[in-house]
Amino acid sequence: MQKYYKPSRFVVIFVLMGLLLAIYMTTLYKLQLFNSGADANAAYLADGTSKTQTLTANRGEILDRNGVPLVSSSPVYNVTISRPAFQGRDDINTVILDLIHTAIDNDVAYTDTFPVTPGAPFAYVLDMSDTQRKYLNAYLDYCHWSPDISASDLIVKMKERYGIDYTMNISDARLVIGVRYELELRAVIYMNSYVFASAIDIDFITLLEEKRYPGVNIETSAKRVYHTTYAAHLLGYIGSMSQEEYNNTYKARGYSYSAQVGKSGAEVVYEQELHGTDGSQTVTTADDGTVLNVETTTAPIPGKNVFLSVDIGLQAATEDSLTAQIDVINADPERADKDRVTGGAAVVTDVNTGEVLALASYPSYDPSTLFTDYADLVQNPSQPLYNRAIKGTYNPGSTFKMVTGLAGLRTGTITPSTVIFDGGRFMKYATTNPPFIPQCWIYPTTHAGHGNETVVTALRDSCNVFFYTVGDEVGQPALAQAAADFGLGSPTGIELPEALGARPTQENKQRLLKTDDIWYAANTVLSAIGQDINYYTPVQLAKYAATIASGGTKYPLTILNSIRSADFTSVVDQPAHQPEGTVPGNEYIKYLQEGMKLVASEGSASSAFKKFFIPVAAKTGTVQSSNTMGNSLLNNGVLVCYAPADNPQIAISVVVEKGTSGSTITQIAKDIMSYYFRNKPDVTVAQDNTLLP
């Protein structure tokens, strides 16, 4: 029997079908309208290869104490090559060669560290670095080739290994080999991913996008931008980490091996604060290396900003004056080329906080061109990369006499009114074998001495015989202890790696002179005037001067003003500037201060400071001694000072290798003080040459 459907049932069915069709069309329309771009590669994503990449956090800025930017980061674009994307492709050599020629034609430098000359007859490059040698040996071992293989034989083997056709000319073959070598090195040893070209411009990016090379990607990174040519040693630089650094330090911090890290200066001291926390993204690529999708999985957290204690204006004034005065000394026509000044340093500190306001080392370099100039800088005999301010150790000469004075006063060996007669020579050991008769500096000219001296006038006149006598009577242990109490020969607290120097002890004598010789009375006598076994850094001398200026209160030195959040809205860390102690016998320091004031107004520094608009306390030193840099025996100039003399704010140390004398370099400190006090809003200054009351 035939079955009939009621009309009402058909109506219901058609209505339902219509609704379903409407829903389908609406959904399709939405997909086409809103997701046409997002789902263009949807069909490929399931078959693509996904990998996680590091999103490098923006590195924090370095600024001076006033917020003047010194170092910041700027985004750059790099060309990278993915080795896996070329697996199974027959055109890898053709693609690489075309990429290389595209770079060459557009004046884009690319990375090729393969240490073989670019053209036949092939040979290993003469300036092969230790790193290049290490990598080449690892590569040869990986390929099971002899480490003694010639360059030409190596080229033949590599052409065969990489399937480079004989129809390709030999020069082009060498170009391709260079890049293939770089790519395979990443499989041989654990090292950074291969960046073909760095910091490329938008025109080259556009060109690469047009050519669509498989396996060739554009990635962003950041480069450090220097906003000053000053403070190079203080700021430091960043670079690639070594495998040892990665394993020992940065792996545990979650760094990627390709991360750029601080290598020197503030960049390494505050690495953890500046670095930030890297994020990650998932990148999906097709078999030909085409990027199908990029998804951020963890957003990076930018680094904090570091405000240094230095004033970049004062830093510039310090470096400029140091350079200018050295140029004046070297311009002396009687000075032979071999006797030219090759180095110096100056340090400025805040007496009341220990903050380093300026730290200069001569010669210096331009931090923005460090890597370009590196080979020349390394070969420069004056060693511009060497930070003399914190690592150079020098005899202090007569600037040490305040140490001897305090040792005598606090042990009761002398009183402030004790008078010692200077006849020009110290005769106590004249009858020993051999005779030891050290002279006062004035004796060769006058054949006489300074006559009667107290500790204050002896400082004014820099009387050697007075301090020979005091040093001999207090003895070596008391001298060494007084030096230690002033912070000489000890860490200053500065965050940078510093040399410790050496106080006058038998242990240091034997260590420095590589001898088993004992300590003699002559060692004590000479040490009392800052000669013999006395070696200190300019930062130690600056702290020493600041300690005298403060009446014996010692502050640890610091290069940090504050650490602030990435958006600059909050202070994350700030030094407390707490004293580390007081010099025993500090009640006698006022006599040392009085003597230093007389040096500036009547003594060896008076030509610079007698009519200066700020009262100054100073002590100069002249040292005929080789320093730890190994220079010839010529007089080094040394100076320590502070100002204002009656209400100290800043302390300064200056050392100039082969600088003739301490009085010769007082102009450097004068220039520093002029800049500092003329740029302080709370200081009223008089005109130069106005007599002070």
UniProtKB/TrEMBL annotation:
Gene3D superfamilies: DD-peptidase/beta-lactamase superfamily, Penicillin-binding protein 2a (Domain 2), Penicillin-binding protein, N-terminal non-catalytic domain, head sub-domain. Residues 55-294 form the Penicillin-binding protein dimerisation domain. The keyword Calcium does not apply. It is a single-pass membrane protein. GO terms for biological process: cell wall organization; peptidoglycan biosynthetic process; regulation of cell shape. It is found in: Cell membrane; Membrane. Keywords: Cell membrane, Cell shape, Cell wall biogenesis/degradation, Membrane, Peptidoglycan synthesis, Transmembrane, Transmembrane helix. Residues 344-673 form the Penicillin-binding protein transpeptidase domain. The chain crosses the membrane at residues 12-31. It comes from the Bacteria. GO terms for cellular component: plasma membrane. GO terms for molecular function: penicillin binding; peptidoglycan L,D-transpeptidase activity. It holds the Pfam family PBP_dimer. Belongs to the transpeptidase family. PANTHER family: PEPTIDOGLYCAN D,D-TRANSPEPTIDASE, PEPTIDOGLYCAN D,D-TRANSPEPTIDASE MRDA. This is Penicillin-binding protein 2. It comes from Sporobacter termitidis DSM 10068.
